[in-house]
Design goal:
Blueprint lengths: L14 H6 L3 H25 L11 H12 L9 H8 L15 E7 L2 E7 L6 E5 L3 E3 L6 E3 H13 L3 H10 L7 H37 L8 E6 L20 H12 L5 E8 L3 H10 L5 E4 L1 H18 L10 H17 L4 H9 L1 H5 L12 H4 L18 H12 L4 H7 L6 H13 L11 H15 L3 H8 L6 H53 L5 H4 L11
Parallel strand pairs: 6-7, 7-8
Antiparallel strand pairs: 1-2, 2-3, 4-5
Helix pairs in contact: 5-7, 7-18, 7-19, 8-9, 10-11, 12-16, 17-18
């Protein structure tokens, strides 16, 4: 306690008592001095101080309000109106007033779905509002939002991926979908699509069996014969890696596997239509126990003939002969197609008519039939409709080469394969559908996404656009009114287009027949009229026209 007596005076009193008893003049002088010093400090501060426009007081309440404003959702969302309406109808706790989106506190996103935290105006309790309904993923899996599964199915159906989906969502100002969420939902959807595809394949096989029962009898193994067509579709040409062996063996090995799996369904592929791939045909004859007959695809045969003719026009040179131009090639290929179409199911007539194509083009009509040869119907006025200037071709070297080329197509073996006039256009259509789901310009083969997209093409070919609703129902998701209506409209549009194409073909065929008949009648009338007028016209009057049309008469 000694430090308390440091200020004691000699008189025994403390020093602070002396300051307390100062005179009034001293107090006034001291107060004035302090006031002047404070005024000087205030003036210096006023010159440098800039007042704040908005004063913020960092309290706990203001920080919470800032977090709410920061976490409050912005932009657009994909919302199920029915789900949102039911949840905003009233508070889940007090059940006294409806909820308002103006009271949203924050949002938690699950892919394209959102979970909103909304505060009730009456009881101030926070409610959890979801923008999409949910379903159970798998038999024992967790709950998943419907909108995410539908988005994955939409990507498989339209042939796009997660990057394209997020690009569209960002343009619409919708938060994108994470890759993990997308792949999870894609696997869920893809497995359901594969199951539906297997079911539709069984349904189509059953329909084919029922049709075969009405037209054919089962063999000794109780297998019904069913015709089919086969063609290979390639995801990417020139790839070094393949299944197990050489890339050339992929197509025949796939064909053998498909033909050997057919008896498991109670059918056998008795005939098949395909291109002239001798390797595939040889593999099928050697490794498929039941006998299979091969029919040639007329589209591939026309393509082979066209390629051979163009190769002749580029490599061979014919002196003193008609040029083998593109118009001449189109004429010969057209005659080839007409012969196959008119003699479908009649090999002998097809063979005899095909032998007359080249002589007919060169003006030799000795083997032609009166049913189709215009020269035999009216030899005086006949002109080729599709050859240059309507004139016959000339040149023995050209004729010999063309006869040798066409001789490859009217042998007994080739005519037997061509007589049904079958084609594999359905396979080409299926390959086109696969290309729309699984484009070759994009790489989806790194995961099971490639299999899912091919399954979508299979089920769309078997069941049409309605497979989307079937897949959603298999997943336990309601397709919705809009989805159901759209699929029905697409199916109706498809049927209408098929009917229009059939009507157009029939109308076009009848129109061509009427025009050709009318043209032939006009030619006949003109020829008879000119023959009657010739004796009445003098030679001088006819002179200027001798090099024209009358010269032929």
């Amino acid at each position: 306690m000694a430090f308390r007596f440091n200020n004691r005076l000699s008189s025994g009193k403390f020093g602070k008592l002396s300051t307390r008893n100062l005179s009034n003049s001293a107090k006034l002088h001291e107060g004035l001095h302090s006031w002047l010093r404070k005024r000087q400090l205030d003036s210096e501060t006023a010159n440098t101080y800039v007042p704040a426009k908005f004063a913020k007081y960092y309290t706990r309440a203001t920080s919470e309000q800032e977090n709410i404003e920061k976490n409050r959702p912005h932009g657009a969302r994909i919302v199920d109106i029915d789900v949102l309406k039911d949840q905003l109808h009233q508070c889940q706790f007090c059940q006294k007033c409806p909820l308002s989106l103006a009271n949203v506190l924050d949002e938690k996103q699950y892919g394209l779905a959102s979970k909103l935290r909304v505060k009730c105006q009456f009881c101030s309790v926070e409610n959890s509002i979801e923008t999409s309904s949910m379903h159970k993923s798998g038999k024992f899996g967790p709950m998943a939002y419907d909108i995410n599964t539908k988005a994955a199915l939409a990507c498989l159906h339209t042939g796009i991926g997660q990057t394209h989906l997020n690009s569209a969502m960002s343009i619409l100002n919708i938060p994108p979908m994470s890759r993990a969420c997308f792949k999870t939902r894609e696997r869920e959807t893809g497995k359901a699509v594969e199951k539906v595809a297997h079911l539709t394949c069984k349904e189509v096989t059953t329909n084919e069996k029922n049709h075969a029962i009405a037209t054919a009898q089962p063999d000794e193994n109780n297998l019904l014969p069913v015709p089919c067509s086969y063609d290979m579709g390639w995801q990417k040409r020139g790839k070094g890696k393949n299944h197990t062996g050489s890339s050339k063996a992929m197509e025949p090995i796939s064909a053998v596997e498909l033909f050997n799996n057919a008896p498991k369904q109670g059918v056998k592929y008795s005939t098949y239509t395909g291109d002239d791939d001798s390797t595939t045909e040889s593999y099928i004859h050697q490794q498929v126990p039941c006998g299979v007959e091969k029919f040639s695809d007329i589209i591939h045969m026309k393509r082979s003939l066209t390629t051979g003719l163009y190769n002749l026009s580029k490599t061979a040179k014919f002196t003193d002969c008609s040029p083998l131009s593109s118009k001449v090639i189109e004429y010969l290929v057209k005659c080839f197609s007409i012969v196959i179409g008119q003699n479908k199911g009649d090999p002998k007539s097809m063979q005899s008519s095909m032998k007359c194509i080249v002589p007919h083009a060169f003006g030799d009509h000795s083997c032609c039939s009166e049913s189709w040869c215009g020269w035999k119907q009216d030899s005086s006025n006949y002109r080729h409709a599709n050859l240059p200037y309507g004139k016959d071709l000339h040149g023995q070297p050209l004729k010999s080469v063309l006869e040798d080329l066409f001789a490859q197509f009217y042998t007994d073996n080739v005519i037997t394969k061509l007589s049904p006039a079958a084609n594999s256009q359905r396979n080409e259509s299926f390959n086109s559908t696969v290309g729309s789901k699984n484009p070759k310009i994009r790489f989806y083969r790194g995961s099971e996404s490639n299999d899912f997209r091919v399954a979508c093409a299979v089920v769309q070919t078997n069941a049409g656009y309605g497979y989307v609703c079937r897949t959603l129902e298999a997943l336990g998701i309601d397709p919705g009114l809009t989805c159901t209506r759209y699929t029905l409209e697409m199916e109706k549009t498809k049927i209408v287009k098929e009917r229009i194409l059939l009507n157009l073909k029939s109308v076009e065929t009848s129109y061509i027949q009427r025009e050709s008949t009318a043209l032939q009648e006009r030619k006949n009338r003109r020829g008879k009229r000119m023959k009657q007028m010739l004796p009445l016209i003098s030679t001088k009057q006819l002179g200027p026209y001798l090099c024209g049309n009358f010269k032929k008469l």
